[in-house]
Amino acid sequence: MIMRYNDGSQSLPRLRVQHSLWSLIKLPMNADVEWTLDEKFEKVKAAGFEAVECWLDDSSEREHKEALDRAGLRLVLGHRPFSLDDVRQTVDRAIRLGADYVFAQPADAYTSLKKAAEICSEGRKIANEKGIAFFVETHRNNFTENIPQTLQLIDKVPDIRFTADLSHFVVVGEFYGWKEEGAIGRMLPILARTSHMHGRISNGEAVQIDVGDGSDGTALFFVRLWATAMRYWQNGAGPGDVFPFASELGPPRYAITLPDGREFSDRWEQSLVMKKLAEQAWDLASSDEEIV
Fold first, then answer.
1. Contact of 53 with 21, CB cutoff 8 Å
2. What phi and psi values does residue 280 have, to the nearest 5 degrees?
3. What one-character-per-residue DSSP string does 131-199 give?
């Protein structure tokens, strides 16, 4: 059973910051000409990201893999399985392309608990038998779109490991980061099973907001959430274990726009803020400081 991504080294457990391919759509901001794939990956590499998360098919896999190799970036694969055959197809692609691991957005919010649990438990076995880690993403319009339903899934699959995109829980639960809400406590069973994280910040009303330089209360609330998951992950982590954190800020329609369709938040600059905040959360998790 693979609980963490391991890079095969004898290095101390570490944070790895990576980027979402989806987040690079329509960049640079409001430009007439979008960056080419090579330009995107060159900028990702130069900014200190180590891998790119992609959703690929037969027609796109070669182009993206070759561009990643040229930039010296690792590959991670995402997918949305509604069946175990969907998992097998993505795991086979991961093996073929040398992807580090796969993460899954399981089915949808209307799938039965029994079916969702089968996808998560049996899907993990399929991946693990090929030596690939398999993480389940928390995401709206998936079975994991809210905390109560995700806790039901944990009851059925106690050894589940998550890709935690906490922006979805915060917007669905309308959390504002107030201590009295007990958000960290409500999410604790999920945070304690997190092996991979997506960096997007919600203010409890919108799923994706601009947090400026990352020094305001909303951003620091997420730093505490992320640090809690990281501290749990660090307990028991061994040589070569890696905690991947991806900047994942969606383009329009995720990104809020002006009436003429122009973005007013620079997602590339904000992705660099997500990277900084992830590193801040890692340092907090690694310290003796109380998080909550």
1. yes
2. -65, -45
3. T-EEEEE--TTSTTSSHHHHHHHHHH-TT--EEE-HHHHHHHHT----GGG-HHHHHHHHHTTEEEEEE
Which residue type sits at 272? L
The C-alpha angle with vertex 242 and arms to 128 and 159, in degrees rounded to 5, equals 45
- Evaluate whether 227 touches 287 at the Cβ level (below 8 Å): no
Give the 3-state secondary structure of residue 103. Answer: strand
**pLDDT for the residue 292:** 77
- pLDDT tens, residue by residue, 20-66: 999 999 999 999 999 999 999 999 999 999 999 999 999 999 999 99
Hey, what domains does the chain have and what are their CATH numbers? 5-286 (3.20.20.150)
The residue among 97, 88, 19 whose CA lies nearest residue 56 is: 97
Of 122 and 179, the one with more pLDDT? 122
Judged by DSSP in three states, 120 sits in: helix
Please give the distance of CA 214 from its chain centroid, rounded to a whole number: 19
* CA–CA distance, 83 with 100 (Å, rounded to integer): 22
Please count the other Cβ atoms lying within 10 Å of the Cβ belonging to residue 208: 20
**Six-digit token pair at 249?**
């800020």
Nearest 5°: CA angle at 199, between 137 and 6? Answer: 65
